[in-house]
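User: Second chain of the day. Same drill as before.
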Amino acid sequence: MKVLITGTSQGIGLAVAKLFVQKGHTVIGIDRQAATLENDNYLHYQADVRDKKHLPEITDVDILINNAGTQNEADIDINLKALIWITERYGVQPNIKSILNIGSASAHTGSEFPEYCASKGGVIAYTKNVAMRVAPYGATCNSLDPGGVLTPLNECVINDAELWAEIMEETPLKKWATPEEIAEWAYFLTVTNTFCTGQSIIVDGGESIKHNFVWKE
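Assistant: Same format as last time:
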C-alpha cells in the first residue's frame, strides 16, 4: 500500500516509516528536515507541513499517518491546523483505507504546556469528525495517544536523574515506550484493524490512570 507519513526524520515518525518499509509498503515521508531513512521503498519530501503552497502532489494515498508535531513552539499551527489540511488534502478521498493521528495522553489529562494540550485535544475531536466522513469509503480514522516516549525531543528529562525518578513515580509500569513500540501500535491500527474507528487509544504505561488517594489510616 501507499503510506504517507509526516514527521519521518526522527523519533516516532522514523520508527513508523522503517516498520512500514520492512513490511513491504511504499512509504512517502514529509518532514522539514532532510531524510534519515534510505530505502528503495521510501520517498522523502523536505517540506514544512504548515506550508500549503509547497506541499508535494501525492495521489491515491492508502494510509495516512499524521505524526508531525512539536512541543511548546507553534503547537496549534503544527499539531492541529497543519494536521487538518494534510488530512483534507491527502486523506479524505475514495482510495483511503486508514488515517491515524498521533495525539498525546496529555489531551486526556491536560498535563502539559497549555497550547500543546489544546492542540492535541483538538486532534481527538477532529479524529471523530474524519472517522464519520471516511466511513463511506470503508476506511477508519483513529488517534494514537502516547504518554512518555524515548525520543530526542524528551532527552531533557530523560537525562535528568532527579526528574526521571519523579516521572517514574507517576508511571505505573515504571518505563516509557520506545518509538518502535509505538510504531507497532500504528501498524496495527492502520493495517490490521478494519473495525475500530473514531477512537483515541491511550498508550502511556498507565500514567493517565495514576491517582494519589490520600486518607487517614
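The radius of gyration is 17 Å.

User: Great, on to the next one.
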